[in-house]
Amino acid sequence: MEAVAIPLWMLLLLIVLSAWAVLDRMLIPSVRWYLRRRVNRVINEINTRLNVHIRSFQFTKRQVLIDRLVFDSKVMDAMREYAQERNIPREVAQAETRRYAHEIVPAFNVYIYFRFGYWLARRIARLLYRVRAGFADSARLANVDPHATVVFVMNHRSNMDYILAAFLAAEHSALSYAVGEWARIWPLQQLIRSMGAYFVRRKSNNPLYRRVLERYVHMATQEGVCQAVFLEGGLSRDGRLQQPRLGIMNYMLRDHDCESGRDIVFVPVGINYDRVLEDRSLLRALDPQAARRSGWFVMRTTLGYTLHNFWLMARSRWQRLGYAAVNFGSPVSVKAYCREREIDMRRMPAEQRGVAIEKFAAHLMQAIAQLIPAVPIPIAARTLLQAGSAGISEPDWKTKFYEQSEALRETGAQVVVPPHTREHTFETAIRMLELRHLIAKDGDRYRPTDGSESILTYYANSLATSPTVHVIADAVVPSVG
Prior knowledge:
- The chain has 481 residues and is of the alpha/beta class.
- It has 19 helices and 11 strands.
- The strands form 2 sheets. Strands 1, 2, 3, 4, 5, 6, 7 and 8 form an 8-stranded mixed sheet that branches. A 3-stranded antiparallel sheet has the order 9-11-10.
- Helix 1 (8-49) crosses helix 5 (110-128) and helix 4 (90-104) packs across helix 9.
- The longest helix is centred in the N-terminal third of the chain and has 42 residues, at 8-49.
């Protein structure tokens, strides 16, 4: 028998192909079975404790959802009109439609959401803040119809809202967010998609894109997917509640069958912080004369801030950023709301439906305004600004701080100033303001430092949302911008 000589490259290729065959036929199926078993175990565990179960829609393969969206009858009509208006082949319009659908549709992974995402959100939230959650009507929230589509609607103070709300709402359901284009970077976008979020081009006026987005939101809502919506559409730049943006809500309610369809239950949520990480950037955005920051500047500043805080942690000198508080309100049923007012949004003319949705959004915004928690830094900032240019002594400031806390509590607000530790809470708030160089002591009186009035006003404005408080705040605290 003669030996057969083969080139080295061919031997290596045969080894690789053999290894791949073993992986494909033996190891990969075993790994898939193992992972599927773990995922099913998580699903069974989660569904036993969630108020709103994870829907079968969320387990559907992503490609199936994309195809379903692309061949939706209303999307097909919009695609034909788009092709005719721009005089382009139908195939080109369909390819563009598929690209939009691929961009929007998430790839929800229950294991990543509850085993990795929840753990990460909890760690980050508790690392940065003292987290406090309040429930204005916990009994009604716990007894929401399990077949209803639950939508958490909240004010938008910080990008931390995504993490905080997902962490605190994880006992009720998995939240699906609409996320802006800022997060479409590798590998962040893959993680966000696996958490069930969908990307939105907020400033796009492309009619085909808007129709694809509308039909996805409608599809997810009709299938009962629990969602979270920031009614303001973007971050508040002056600390006050902004006017509601009705796009996503319009998509949810435009074709909703209030009689026989699945009910939609909106849960208003109020969020507030002792420190908003983006506060200076948000205020800078109000100044039309401010020079635009480069991406390099943002990256350098963020990295410097992060390294500085790690250095403080290593020296045991780092402190958390104060309180982060979330307050969940009473659920609002769309069926009950429409029944009480004898309206059917699906059958209303477009103009009347727009007015009805606007009124409904205003109703939710009023509920959110009354739910926004009062945390120590905004209360301290407000009382300091009330003192004017003369400043205020520490004993007087403390007295005013206590009085404002009680006045807010009497209006029904969630005040995160525990009565038994209020002196420590006040002293901590003063120390935090000093560390940020927002206040200075001149003799025995505290005053805002030069240029800090706008930031202090930004925090004080977060208390100027409830109608009861609004009159007082307007009298003493100027609005930023």
